Amino acid sequence: xxxxxxxxxxxxxxxxxxxxxxxxxxxxxxxxxxxxxxxxxxxxxxxxxxxxxxxxxxxxxxxxxxxxxxxxxxxxxxxxxxxxxxxxxxxxxxxxxxxxxxxxxxxxxxxxxxxxxxxxxxxxxxxxxxxxxxxxxxxxxxxxxxxxxxxxxxxxxxxxxxxxxxxxxxxxxxxxxxxxxxxxxxxxxxxxxxxxxxxxxxxxxxxxxxxxxxxxxxxxxxxxxxxxxxxxxxxxxxxxxxxxxxxxxxxxxxxxxxxxxxxxxxxxxxxxxxxxxxxxxxxxxxxxxxxxxxxxxxxxxxx
Length: 303
Ligand SMILES: [Zn+2]
What we know:
Oligomer: single chain
Strand order of the largest sheet: 3-2-1-4-5-7-6
Bound molecules: zinc ion
Number of domains: 1
Shape: globular
CATH topology: Rossmann fold
Number of strands: 7
């Protein structure tokens, strides 16, 4: 019920994004295409850290093998990215990283029903109350893994509760399960992204874990070369950053990534009236019943 108040409260305080309370539950499933999607600029690191701190068990699904992500050869990238994904998940406090190992960036040709079946099985096995992933309806998404895994996730979220879908699963000691809440994230630096309908705030310590988890993915972020390039650009304009004075290029690259994460969370936080926040498209337990939702919004009474 509390979600229905959030929009009215946000409007009253002049914020552009309502701050949402955490949905109730115990288990959160985060199905993502890649090792790093929980922490990047469009990511969910702060919300995941908050879920963990408030007692939820959070599981991360890495659907692809990430073989293209990084400068090494594919097999090596797969191993490094898996290792860094486990390390980053530990920083955030997640229970486990489950790798499905579909071939990175080639998901257009994979049997999407199989990927969906895997996600349906995981939903039935782990029984999440909340599913968090890419908003499959985001605009201008050019990454095939993001599109395909996002769509498979949304389909699985709906279909896992249907007893006639993949009944073979029930031989493996699982039951149909309907998660109540779906939280979608989009990449806003690509085209229009999506239109978020709310934000989840988090505290300073959770923000800090988000920053550390992000730069833990050293195979793809925080390269010393990016620090050298930045310093060269600054030097051309006779500019220096005092904080860089006693840092080597690796430390500067890490510092830049952490500042970026911090800036991103503060930017969304400002829109939501919090110090740190992330924006999402949130679907609650009444989304499939718009008439009832409308009735509740007009007639709601707190018990
Ligand atoms: Zn990704």
